[in-house]
Design brief:
2 strands, rod-shaped, 89% helix, mainly alpha
Length: 187
């Protein structure tokens, strides 16, 4: 119980004060011996877990950054390689087109030359056939006009060749005259 002294202050019995202090010291001792170390250990573990988590997060972030840089480098390499492949494909396509053009041009020239050769051979054949036919007709006509036989092959051939040469000279002169007329008209 509580006792009042003469001055009106509260006085506590000494025995209770001692028991209270002993009880308080026991509680503090139990707390210091068992509870506080356990709490300190828990706080240390939690701090280590947090610090370890932060460290792991920093390491993971550093790894992610390195992976990102590696990915970007690979992507840049792939883009460069793709551009090189595209350029090579364009060059190859152009080379193929050029080869095809050259081949087509050569084939066209070959076909044109073959056609010209055939035309020249046909022209020569036609000229030879016409010379022979004109020669026969000329011999028959000359034989009728002259009244003598032109059956001698050498004589007949010489006469026909002279006649055809004169015709060629006349046609050459006419072609030159026509060309001269055209040049004066176009001037």
């Amino acid at each position: 119980m509580t006792h009042y002294s003469a001055e009106g202050a509260l006085s506590v019995p000494t025995g209770e004060l001692i028991i209270g202090l002993i009880a308080f010291a026991c509680v503090v001792a139990v707390l210091l011996k068992f509870v506080f170390p356990k709490m300190e250990q828990t706080f240390a573990e939690r701090r280590d877990a947090i610090e370890g988590g932060l460290k792991r997060a920093e390491e993971a972030q550093a790894q992610a950054q390195a992976a990102l840089e590696h990915y970007n480098a690979q992507l840049a390499d792939a883009r460069g390689e793709a551009a090189q492949i595209r350029e090579n494909a364009r060059a190859e396509a152009q080379r193929i087109v050029d080869e095809m053009r050259e081949s087509a041009h050569a084939e066209a020239q070959r076909i044109t030359q073959r056609g010209e050769d055939q035309l020249e051979a046909q022209r020569r054949q036609v000229v030879a056939d016409l010379r022979a036919e004109i020669g026969q007709l000329s011999v028959q006509l000359a034989g009728r006009i002259v009244g003598e036989s032109m059956e001698d092959d050498d004589r007949r051939r010489g006469t026909v060749d002279r006649f055809l040469d004169e015709m060629d000279q006349m046609s050459g002169a006419q072609a030159a005259a026509v060309a001269a007329d055209e040049s004066t008209v176009s001037s």
